[in-house]
Amino acid sequence: MSVTALACTAAIGVVFAPIAAGEPAGYRPAIVPSEPGPPQSDHLAAARYLDTHPNAVPVGVNDFGCVPGAAHPRPIVLVHGTDSSAYSDWAGIGPQLVSAGYCVFALNYGGAPGADTYGTEDMRISFAQLADFVDDVLAATGAAKVDLVGFSQGATVSRYYINKLGGAPKVGTWVGLASPSYGGVMYGLVPVGQAVPGMMDVYAKVTSTAAVQQAQGEPLMVELNAGGDTVPGVRYVTVGSRVDEMIQPFDNIALHGPGAENLVLQDLCADDLTGHFHMVYDPFVQQLLQRVLDPARAPAPVCSAVPLGTGIPQVIIAGNS
User: Fold this and answer.
1) Where are the beta strands (DSSP E) in 72-222?
2) Nearest Cα to Cα of residue 56 among 25, 19, 95
3) What are phi and psi of 146, to 5 degrees?
4) Are 16 and 125 contacting, i.e. CB atoms less than 8 angstroms apart?
5) Ramachandran bin of 119, using left for φ above 0, alpha for ψ from -120 to 50, beta for the remaining angles
6) Cβ-contact 213, 220 below 8 angstroms
């Protein structure tokens, strides 16, 4: 599902590192951003920084000399959402994970040639880009497995890699933040579009190919969940909000297969009304993620009130600035 067009990726005097594997003509290679950028408190602050630092990555992330320690033997790979980037979605959480002692990595995937954002194109290309990146991380760190943390579309891309591309043996824990596990109906627009010939193609032009591919009942989502929404050997955790602005019905966030744990934000902190867009910048969710990744060592998250609609104005401004 969509966040917004936050990442400016025009290279002016900056060298970008593409993923090694080739993509079909008409697709932009995935990028491994390499310029350390400071922590941010919301998407707008991240977008403004990206305006002048298009190769930004959260500070400490993508250190390919990082050696996993005994406490955290699996590197973490962060997978951003639609119309976004590694920096715009992970500038809050990424540095916190690095400070906690993890080796942390993130790529910019699914971009169109000449576009200034990522995560918009056919997700079948994005699946392969993530698979190549995971292999690069494992080779660089010497680790046997990674943990995958996906936000929004990133949850779909990373779960497809595990379930359908043979990634399960390379993954310990998968975490989906605001995961569109069974897609969404977009306030009823999706059923209308699916009932009118050609309308979903119109939706794709207005939003993006990747956004429409994640709608409830679309072929790719049906394929992803066919035969069960989890596979053996991987721990699956979703973190969702009852007031998610993008995924309705809310129950579509949950997974149902063996090994799945579904955490509902308001069940853990009733006064936190964070929805879809603010999920990765919500302090409780950030702390909860560390607890999910390391239940034995990470402290319990601290519950604080968050008003309904928090983060939405920042996303709108960032997308139109």
Assistant:
1) 76-79, 104-106, 146-151, 171-177
2) 95
3) -115, 165
4) no
5) left
6) yes
